[in-house]
Design a protein that fits this description.
Elements (H helix, E strand, L loop, with lengths): L12 H16 L3 H8 L3 H8 L7 H11 L4 H10 L7 H8 L4 E6 L10 H13 L5 H17 L7 E7 H5 L5 H16 L3 E6 L13 E5 L5 E6 L4 E4 L2 H17 L3 H13 L3
Helix pairs in contact: 1-5, 2-3, 4-5, 7-8, 10-12
Amino acid sequence: MVNRKELDPEKSPGAKFGQRLRQLRDGRGWTQDELGARMGCTGTHISAVETGRRPPTRRFAASADRVFGTGDGLERQSRAVRYTALLEGFPEYVRHEARAAEMRLYEVGVIPGLLQTPEYAATLEADAVRREAITPEQASERVALVAERQATLARSPSPLIFAVLDEGCILRPMGDPEIMDAQFAQLLEFAELPNTALQIAPFRMGARRPFSLPITVLTLPDRSLMSYAESSQRGHLERETSFVLPIVTACHQLQAEALSQAASVALIEQVRKGTP
């Protein structure tokens, strides 16, 4: 085939997935159109995925697994492709988050994913699409990941979650008033859970605020610690205990300086009502 594009599986997770899809298709002797007909899409779509020009959605990968009889192999492989829109280190962090016994998190500017409503998450990602930072498909996967992460919290025993939000998280509007009202309601419900603590770090803390970027500390079932921190461009997962312990100390200092949960709930209710 003169126009057949050579694939380099080392180029990216998308290229690796595309090569695997092509290998399976070639093994059956199918054209891209024939595979597309079996999967319910076009041959052009198959070509775009094979050459890495379009990331495979979960539905696409699951359909390919069904057609090729590969169990959930392609669906699992596709996760690495979909997560390319996420910051470095975050996909691995999510796997540890799903089994953590305790979480301590601090967020700046936006409600953290574990506490977001689907509508809030969708509004946040829609703006990333508008800025052409991610594709619509990647936005859908990000929103789906928020739901998946929240679902992992509904396990027994429940993880302890200590969440401190910078005051800007609740003052920054996201979408229309109905979306924010539902988001405030979800925060208040979160605060009522027996395994959670929710606090607001007010602006007046000033220099006493120990963090200027989002930070999360996980305590795993074996009591080992790890932290995850983000900048605007990348994330870093730290496993070395000697580096994590100072962050744990700073988290305790942050909780001591932040508003109590009762005062935090009262502030959220005031903002929700639009009262000063």
